[in-house]
Amino acid sequence: MFNKIIFYFKISTTFLRKYTIISDQLVQWEEARVICNANHHGLASISNENEQQALEESVAASGVASDLWIGGFRLIADPTWKWARTGGNISWTRWAPLQPDGNGLCMQLTYSYLWDDDSCIDFKPFICNV
Ligand SMILES: [Ca+2]
User: 1 CA distance to ligand 1 centroid (A)?
Assistant: First the structure.
């Protein structure tokens, strides 16, 4: 039902991370989270430079030239960003310049692979951890 594109990237001899990009389904952030939890291992989370690099490579290889939902979010009364997949606070970050600027509570990966807060009700393709 989805056009799933799965990429595998070996980042080092001890590190392997896989991401799935579902590129033909445009959904709001919450729906992306639910789909990723049901079918994979959560909406994509990025914990360090290696994972960011793997994500960038998988998006580049997919040919998807669009903003994409990833798994960061915050609550309206709390400035702390968390990963939906784990519930943990986000420490390592790769925000775009001048972001987060407060225009939304959900995190997108921009077409230049940087992080940006955005309105959760926008419709975008998304990336799951697998
Ligand atoms: Ca923003």
Answer: 31
